[in-house]
Amino acid sequence: MRIRAPLLLCILLAGCTYVSDESLMEANIVRPGNFIAGSGTIESVGVLPGARAPGTGADAKGKYPDRNLYRLYLRMDAGGFQTVDIDSSRFLAGEAIELTNDGRVVKVSGATLRIGGK
Fold this sequence. Notes:
Helix content is 11%, strand content 31%. The chain is mainly beta. A hairpin with a 4-residue loop joins β5 and β6.
């Protein structure tokens, strides 16, 4: 019984960290301006209410328009602090992220499941 409990706990924890839709793990930088690509941590998230034009933006199912943009306040791993405005409300303070050269914000974790050796 002692061996089963930790094993069950590990399986339960692994099941809670699975993401089936990769688009939930990233967002587009709406106002790309002058940002520096790299990794960092989200310090806080601000809402820019009504910053999008009517008819743009929607939830994952495309039903409810989201007219807000979201400002991420980031502490970068290489030092420094910067902000970016994104089109997704799925980012929270404390999460590790990567800013890419092509204008995306991607959530990162300590482990990645690679399928097919890619």
